[in-house]
């Protein structure tokens, strides 16, 4: 039995899919009282990563854990994981972690999560993916108002990754010791600018969609209305100052899974209804 935290989210959902494909038993951690929509055959276990003691039950009889970064009390959660006899942990980290920059708010919580896992005494593997293809869903509110999408960092090509490819890599790292003690940078098969992504979405949605890049001042003002300033600073550090490279295409998905990573075209076709 393998415990997947964040099992109803983009990353966790991909891991659930990957484990089911391998025929593994899956237990999904869900928030207490939530109406979790998990695939058939997946056991729902109520618990909260911000409340480590709530993980005692979900950890019973588990051989491996897929863990999200950045939650309070991660050291205690890992202590309970070790006490439960779990054999390995696969941590969802970030492309920002290799910077080692603790002054960057986004990089910091991934770096500290990796540090906590390393110091836990548990066998581990780290996944450091690029931005997810499913981040394109953030444009849906704009599309309720018309066919023009406005967004930041319009000149930055990113080799976004399909959540199911993150899940496929995680599933293999969770079910064998072959990947222990290793860190995996993950990307999709091609780097696309936001405008190129929107053009692909338009093709499958059957809409005349277009992308208009925001200037940095406009983008910063809008983002600061949506998230804390330290996170806005972090993203500008990544994509304006170039602290993070999410353009390079990495061979990791194919090396681990034996198949090419899914393209943004595939993701757009499968999710076209959301953009119509």
Biggest sheet features: 7 strands, parallel
Radius of gyration: 19 Å
| Mean pLDDT rating | 96
Number of helices: 12
Helix content bin: 25-40%
Sequence of secondary-structure elements: EHEEHEHEHEHEHEHEHHHHH
What is the end-to-end distance?
Answer: 39 Å
Strand order of the largest sheet: 3-2-1-4-5-6-8
pLDDT below 50 for ≥5 consecutive residues: which ranges? none
Number of strands: 9
- Beta-strand percent range: 15-25%
- Tell the overall outline: globular
Compile the SSE list and pairings:
Elements: E1 2-4, H1 10-22, E2 26-30, E3 42-46, H2 56-59, E4 64-68, H3 74-83, E5 88-92, H4 105-119, E6 124-129, H5 140-143, E7 148-151, H6 163-175, E8 182-186, H7 194-205, E9 210-213, H8 216-224, H9 229-239, H10 252-257, H11 264-270, H12 272-275
Parallel strand pairs: 1-2, 1-4, 2-3, 4-5, 5-6, 6-8, 7-9
Helix pairs in contact: 1-6, 7-11
Structural notes for this entry:
- With 276 residues, the chain is α/β, with parallel strands linked by helices.
- Helices cover 39% and strands 15% of the residues.
- It contains 12 helices and 9 strands.
- The chain has a 7-stranded parallel β-sheet, with helices on both faces.
- It is globular and about 55 Å long.
- It starts with a strand and ends with a helix.
């Amino acid at each position: 039995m393998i415990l997947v935290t964040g099992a109803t989210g983009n990353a966790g959902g991909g891991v659930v899919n990957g484990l089911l494909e391998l025929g593994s038993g899956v237990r999904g951690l869900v928030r207490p009282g939530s109406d979790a929509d998990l695939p058939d055959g997946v056991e729902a276990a109520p618990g909260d990563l911000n409340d480590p003691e709530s993980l005692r039950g979900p950890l019973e009889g588990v051989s491996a854990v897929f863990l999200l970064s950045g939650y309070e009390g991660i050291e205690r959660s890992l202590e309970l994981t070790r006490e439960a006899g779990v054999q390995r942990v696969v941590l969802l980290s970030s492309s920002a972690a290799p910077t080692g920059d603790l002054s960057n708010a986004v990089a910091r919580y991934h770096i500290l999560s990796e540090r906590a896992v390393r110091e836990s005494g548990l066998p581990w593997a780290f996944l450091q993916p690029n931005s997810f293809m499913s981040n394109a869903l953030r444009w849906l509110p704009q599309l309720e108002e018309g066919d023009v999408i406005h967004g930041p960092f319009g000149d930055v090509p990113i080799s976004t990754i399909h959540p199911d490819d993150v899940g496929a890599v995680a599933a293999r790292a969770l079910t064998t010791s072959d990947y222990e003690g290793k860190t995996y940078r993950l990307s999709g098969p091609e780097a696309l600018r936001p405008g190129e992504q929107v053009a692909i979405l338009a093709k499958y949605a059957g809409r005349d969609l277009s992308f208009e890049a925001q200037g940095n001042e406009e983008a910063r003002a809008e983002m600061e209305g949506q998230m804390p300033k330290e996170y806005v600073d972090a993203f500008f550090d990544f994509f304006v100052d170039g602290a993070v490279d999410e353009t390079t295409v990495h061979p990791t998905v194919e090396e681990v899974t034996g198949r090419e990573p899914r393209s943004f075209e595939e993701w757009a076709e499968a999710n076209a209804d959301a953009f119509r």
